[in-house]
Amino acid sequence: MTSKQPFQLPLSVSLRDDARFENYYAQGNELVCASLKEAANGNGEQFTYIWGSEGVGCTHLLQAVCHEADPVGRSAAYLPLDELKQMGGGILEGMEYLDLVCIDGIESVAGNKAWEEALFHFFNRIREQGNTLIIASTAAPRHLGINLPDLASRLSWGMVFQVQALNDEVKLKAIKTKASARGLQFSDEVARFLLHHASRNMNDLACLLDTLDRASLSAQRKITIPFVKEVTGL
Question: DSSP state, 133?
Answer without folding.
Answer: E
